[in-house]
Design goal:
The chain has eight helices and seven strands. By secondary structure, the protein is α+β, with helices and mostly antiparallel strands. Helix 1 packs antiparallel against helix 3, helix 6 runs antiparallel to helix 7 and helix 6 runs parallel beside helix 8. The termini are far apart.
Length: 169
C-alpha cells in the first residue's frame, strides 16, 4: 500500500503504528498517514491506482468526494478489498505539528521495506497529549526504547507546546 502511495506522494506515518514499528506488541486497526496537500487530479490518479490494485476506500464517497473530505481536514480510509483490518487513514497536513512531523520525518529501513515516521520527540509528546491508556502506554514504550537517542530538550519543548507533563519514569 505504501509503495503505491509513494509513487504519488511523500508521506509520514504517525501515531500508534510508530510504536508497533519499534517493537511494541499491541493491536491496531489502522495506520495513520499524513501527506502534503495535492491537486485533485493527483489524488484522483492515486485513488484510481488503489482501486486498480485491489484496494477499496471505506468512506462512502467517489474520488472527488474523498478529496473534498481531505480538504475539510477529515481523513479517508482504505484497505485491501473485502478486508477491513488493517486499514490506513490518510490525512492532509493541516497544522504546524503535522508539518514538523513531515519535514523532519525519519527513514526506517527494514530488510524488506522502507518507512517514513514522525520524529520520536514529537510523537511521544503527542501520544501523551492524546491521553488514552493505549496512547500513554505507547508514549512510555517509545520513550523507554529511544531515551538514549532522542533530543530531550526538543522532547520537553514539544511537551510544553502540547501542554502535557513530561515526567515519564
Amino acid at each position: 500500500m505504501l509503495d503505491i502511495l509513494s509513487d504519488y506522494s511523500s508521506y509520514v506515518i504517525i501515531s500508534g503504528y510508530v510504536a508497533i514499528l519499534f517493537g511494541r506488541t499491541r493491536s491496531t486497526e489502522d495506520v495513520d498517514i499524513l501527506i502534503p496537500m495535492c491537486e485533485c487530479s493527483t489524488f484522483l490518479l492515486l485513488h484510481d491506482k488503489f482501486i486498480q490494485m485491489g484496494y477499496e476506500f471505506l468512506n462512502e464517497e467517489n474520488g472527488n468526494g474523498l478529496y473534498s473530505m481531505l480538504l475539510s481536514g477529515s481523513g479517508v480510509r482504505l484497505c485491501e478489498k473485502d478486508s477491513f483490518i488493517p486499514n490506513i487513514e490518510i490525512k492532509f497536513i493541516k497544522n504546524e505539528s503535522d508539518e514538523y512531523s513531515f519535514i523532519n520525518r525519519i527513514k526506517l529501513v527494514s530488510s524488506e521495506k522502507t518507512f517514513f515516521i514522525s520524529p520520536l520527540e514529537i510523537q511521544i509528546a503527542y501520544k501523551l497529549w492524546l491521553g488514552s491508556d493505549k496512547d500513554i502506554e505507547d508514549a512510555i514504550f517509545l520513550y523507554t526504547v529511544s531515551k538514549q537517542m532522542i533530543n530531550k530538550d526538543l522532547f520537553y519543548e514539544f511537551c510544553s507546546s502540547f501542554g502535557v507533563n513530561y515526567e515519564i519514569t
